[in-house]
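Why do we bother with a discrete structure alphabet at all? Because it lets us treat a fold like text: something you can write down, compare, and reason about line by line. To make this less abstract, here is a complete entry for Family 10 glycosylhydrolase. Read it the way you would read a sentence in a foreign language you are learning: slowly, and without expecting to understand everything at once.
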Amino acid sequence: MQTNLKRRAFALAGVASALALGGLLTACKTPPTATVPGAVVQAGADQPPPAPREFRAAWVSTVANIDWPSKQNLTAQQQQAEAIAILDRAKAMNLNAIVLQVRPSADAIYASNIEPWSEYLTGTQGKPPQPWYDPLKFWIAEAHARGLELHAWFNPYRARHNIAKSPAAPNHISRTNPAAVKQYGNFLWMDPGEESASKQTLDVVLDVVKRYDVDGVHIDDYFYPYPIEAPNAAGNAAALDGKAAKAELDFPDQASWQRYVAGGGKLDKPSWRRDNVNRLIEGMYEEVHHEKSWVRVGISPFGIGRPDRRPPTISGFSQYDKLYADAETWLQKGWVDYLSPQLYWPVSQTAQAYDTLLDYWIGQNTQGRHIWPGMFTSRIGAPSRDYQPQDILQQIDIARSRPGAGGHVHFSMVALMENRKGLDDQLMAGQYAQPALVPASPWLGSTAPSAPKVSAARGGRLLKLNMTPGKGDALYAVWTRYGSEWRFSVVPAAQKHALVTDDAKLGEPNAVFVSAVDRLGNESERVKVWGK
């Protein structure tokens, strides 16, 4: 992810906590549909329409304190307050997932026996929050209490960021296994050719999957590093501009390469580098699902594909040749559950056009996995190449118009916290006017949960729903009909109850249906709990 934008002030005001915790169903007046939220459906039917489905997420970056925490060395209570503000804003906007960066640079924002505490929490690598608490456990609990998924985001190979200030902790990989770490410009980088480095990344991911109730694991675009100009420059900014670094500094992996050749390896060096990354991706996919079958594996690679496959109008940086990321193979081998290619360019930028690139990745998706593109929402209000809200609204509409794309991810949450140029207001009045369920992942399991056990009792101008959670229930989908108009709401299973209010104009609801939804998005039979 890009970290070189000027950060705006972290905005906490205006977040409505009651929306997240009060249990009151603020049902949307826009009738839902199966795959395109906001589309109009036929009113007056005896049965409610299909549930709206769309992955709506935002990346929450911890590196460089981009999104959370807003600065280093906040108290535990201050960190928690900022996390709750983010989650409340996500809930109020009808997002349904947060992708939280838990490993910025071979470190951890959670209690780990493998890697040290991140300096982005306390200002000192290896130092835990004070008073002590486990941030990841806190984030998961608070996200699930609001009906939001929490995906743990790992940087796979970066060992030290160029803006890091505190010394490496004794248990950081640069000190415990220095042979596996290389200096590249102002960064330290784990060498993907070193088996011990890839093993540590895989061990870290599996440790989180085993010990935490995450809904997904997610890795970003930093495989081999973005090339830099010799001797030192940031390479990812040039890549976004569609340029190549001049006089590139080669990654210093001669030792691992020569060991491979001496062992009888037959691949050329670029193919060997891609194979190193491929083996990590394949192993991660297999091992995560061996541990927990419902945890989805996602990757957000750089958005431009292989030079020999890309559309003729597309040009620019090649992740295949430069980052040694063969994302097309990962899709076609089924080594991901969702791909979020970073399509960080407007439709009008022909050489990297958002719509053309989205169609490209959909075309590469022969296994039918989820394609949820990443959008550069933080460009809104940026010092240069400023986006307008309409750019993001247009990209959402384009994704909705493609049957092969079922959602999107905002980079990053800070832009939504600040409601830059009124984007949040426009989303909540339009594309996000109603909640949506995350699309199901039938290749991981398609057995529907049992129908929910629900009772309803009316008191005053409220209808109280009491749900008895079944095994595996994550959410309850609730349809309420006022007159001939259906409205859709989502209730976290842990909440166990909800209040349905009368409409100011249409009066009390004449029908209410409820279904259970499991961790994979599978939906139960609907149960009519109110109405004739």
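What the structure line is telling us, in plain words: The two ends are 53 Å apart (CA to CA). The chain has a mean pLDDT of 91.
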